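Quick one, T. Sequence first:
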Amino acid sequence: MTSSNSLKLGWIGTGRMGYALATRLLDAGYDLTAYNRTRAKAEPLTAKGAKIVDHPKDLAGLDVVFIMVSAPKDLEQVIYGENGLLTVEGKAPKIIVDSSTVSEEVSAKVRAAAEEKGATFLAAPVSGNPAVIAAGKLTVAVSGPRASFEDVKPLLETFGHGVTWVGEGEVARLVKIAHNVYLGIVIQALAEITVLAERGGVSRAAFLEFLNDSVMGSTFSRYKSPALVNLDFAATFTIPLLSKDFDLGLAAAHDLKVPMPLASATSQLIASAGGAGYLTEDFAVLIKEQARRSGYEIESENTKVISGLEVSKDE
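Structure tokens:
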């Protein structure tokens, strides 16, 4: 491929995540053309130099096309549905990088369609949300041909601080599912121990400050502390989405004959929260369910808490 700074890039899907990542490519000086099903959501990118097109097929002649859509059916639609990226005779991007969250089966189907058209397909699911992107801390797991990964690695490195090639084929999809299962286990564990401390007379803010300053603290525990202390559940990832990923993870565990007792128990607690009506809030709302099961109604402490994702001056 040509040098990375001269590449012609495409972007499909400018929702909250896609928009933030496309913006980082534009801010890094790349030539980018974008498509979104609702064109108005992509239009603000023109202020940063992006061009907007009406159909995915209009991106077929570009070097690299990134995709971030919300569901498997959406990925298939923008790839080989009407006016899809691969529907132009004799023309396809050199490399397609898909960061949508889809199953290994759908990913393999799309990979085969891309290869039939002469395009290389990389599965590249990400860990993070717009706040994480703004802080430069997004991470990416990539699977597919190693040589193509090396070609696009400089582009992916504009997204955040961690880009890892994890193997061939669709294994990046399993990495993402395993990551999200761990995410659920950790947030449930945080909810349980925080409620335990509170019931013993310790403020949530004080307990989490202690935890975050200890060797047990993490980027994630710091990031979620404001929500756990002040009960701000503006959604970054919802209970239904987390529950879906647990279903996928436990199905993979069954197929691979890997016992996962902690994940199984957590899955039931997450399903219980969904059944209690927590469908649109952030998954940190699990602390409310934990408090309810502990016999009290949790209240906001209205305390300023540092998240650890404050944007640095260099960002």
